Amino acid sequence: MRERRGDVVLRVNAMDGQYHIRSSPGVGDMWPASRDGLFVGEDNWVAVLCGTFWGPVDLSVREHDAPLGEVDRDWDMAAEWSLDCPEGTFAIHDIYSNDPPHVVEVAAGWTRLRLSVRGRTRAREVPEPVTVPVEQHLLELWPAPAWHGPAVVHGPDGLAHHLRSQ
C-alpha cells in the first residue's frame, strides 16, 4: 500500500498558457513538440500547457512513496513525465514575473510526475483576463529508479486534441 502525504495547495499564474516545473538550469531545446498536449520539455524542465492563457490556476501537489495505480476518473486528463532532480528539489513557477517559485523537496535522482487536469477546455473559452481559477491541476510525484517516457494515462481532453492537431 502506498503512503500518501497531505496536499500542498498552490495558486500558480499561467502566462502565455503555461507554467514551468524546473529541477536545474539549462534548456537544450526551447520548445520541443508536445506528444500529449499537456507537457513540453526535457529531462530537467517541463512546461505545463494550460487552458488559461493569462491568469490563476489552482494546483495541488501530493507526494507518494511509490508508483500510482489507476487515475481518478473525475479528472479530464492525466499524463506522466520523468524529471531529473539531481539536487533533490524542483521549482514550480510562472514564466515572466519576479514572484518567487514554489520549491518542492524530493529525493535526489529521477522523480515521476503525474499531472491530472480538469477545466482546461472551459478555461480556454473564458474571456481574458481570468481572475478566478477555472481549471484545477493535481501534481502527484514519487521517486523513480530510472527515466520512463512520457505517457498519457487518462484522456486526452479537448484542449490536448486541439494542441496536438496544430
Summarize the structure.
By secondary structure, this protein is mostly beta strands. It has a single domain (8-164), classed as Competence, DNA-entry nuclease inhibitor, ComJ (Substrate Binding Domain Of DNAk, Chain A, domain 1, Sandwich).
Structure description:
With 166 residues, the protein is mainly beta. The protein has 2 helices and 11 strands; from the N terminus they run E-E-E-E-E-E-E-E-E-H-E-E-H. It has a single domain (8-164), classed as Competence, DNA-entry nuclease inhibitor, ComJ (Substrate Binding Domain Of DNAk, Chain A, domain 1, Sandwich), CATH 2.60.34. It has a 6-stranded mixed beta sheet with strand order 1-5-10-9-6-11, with no helix packed on it. A 5-stranded antiparallel beta sheet has the order 3-4-2-7-8, with no helix packed on it. The mean pLDDT is 91.
Quaternary state, please?
single chain
CATH class: Mainly Beta
Number-wise, the strands total 11
Per CATH, the architecture is Sandwich
Low-confidence blocks of residues: none
Mean pLDDT: 91
Percent of residues in beta strands: 35-45%
Helix run count? 2
How far apart are the first and last residues' alpha carbons, in Å? 41 Å
Task: Give me the CATH fold name.
Answer: Substrate Binding Domain Of DNAk, Chain A, domain 1
Full CATH superfamily name: Competence, DNA-entry nuclease inhibitor, ComJ
For the largest beta-sheet, the strand count, sense and barrel status come to: 6 strands, mixed
Trace the largest sheet across and list its strands. Answer: 1-5-10-9-6-11
Rough outline: globular
Radius of gyration: 15 Å
Following the backbone from N to C, one meets helices and strands in this order, namely EEEEEEEEEHEEH
Overall tally of structural domains:
1
The helix content is under 10%
